[in-house]
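User: I'll paste a sequence; please echo it back and then give the predicted structure.

Assistant: Echoing your sequence first, then the prediction.
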Amino acid sequence: MADDERLALNGGMPVRSESFDTAHGVGYLDDDELNAAVEVLKSRSLFRYYGPEFLDKSGGFEAELRERFSVEHAVAVSSGTAALQAGLVGLGVEEGDEVIVPAVTFIATVGAVVNARAVPVFAEVDESLNLDPASFEENITDKTTAVVPVHLINAACDMDPIMEIAKRRGIRVLEDAAQAAGVSYRGRPVGTIGDAGAFSLQLEKNITSGEGGFLLTNDFQVFDRAVRYQDQGGQFTTSKGDVREHSSGDPFIGTNLRITEIASAIASVQLGRMDEIVSSGRERARQIRQRLGDIPVDWRTLPHEAGEGGSVTFYLRDAAGARQFGKALRAEGIPAGQIYGGKPVYANPAVLEQRTPWSKGCPFNCELHPTARRYYMGLCPRSEDLLGRSVGIAVGPRMTDADVDDIVRSVRKVAHAYL
């Protein structure tokens, strides 16, 4: 066997020696973002509500969000997690309520529910790795007030059946679009289909300000509660008179989840790049899937024809084979592995053992609240099986044709050895 045909894992020559550019928004940072940040620094007005030479970059960013996503209301916050927290408060989720989340997601989705003093209920995902509508409905109880469908790695959830079930059963919908800013589902931007949508501006996301996030909604009451909650209950918003005469309810104590002017200025520039970033990433992913369409694997199903961007994902026959396949791809220089390490979010010890910083009183903790949900491996067997058998390859919008060639060549090389 020629050295270039032998797997690198077995001492052969790796296909790739240089790292791939898998960056999304951060890969597009240039002088425009730099100048936007410097402008705020020169104004000495870093706080989002006032300063010596106040520029109101945060207000401007929110206006741009409303226009770009065609929504009535937007509030920029300090992180994607903050957007989820504010969204749950906006939707009226209360202590002890149950909130359905998919078994496959980042821990922030769960953490936001717990910090709202609600109880996460885990539902299965299907072959899209997004929330299975049937499992969502099966998990509804008389305590369920909300569901958080997650648009995982730039692939939209199948929102139509989710919305039909939610409306029929009286469930509020908070879309977690942290990993999918700019993605659409049947002509509608994700994050604008449910009652509210939460987005992240963290460094790895489609658009970034390093850290930050935003919440979108067309429901004034949801917006009013969320915008007050993220600002100490409305300290600055109501003092300006913006919502004082249109309050959605009695005053309440909030917290500080405010975005900064510098983050807003950078995010505003990035927002203008979003469509290019998303379309380029999806085109690269489409090319890879198309060129590998004949290999004997099961591909991640995609509810929307535009496909996925940020990764290409397929399933092998068993978890051991997927782990070995991913290991062999990494040896070839390909950024590959199992989604979330092949484990559901409730496998995290903090979730599995229901640990919080509070020693008492949290409805999430089944030791303190016998009626709370208990979590265990095997809770969502279909999700665990799909994750275990998954192989994901990171894809970036700035990848070149040569990068795509190397990914395709590496997958074929490893598939020839193992499949």
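The longest strand covers residues 73-77. The chain has a mean pLDDT of 93.
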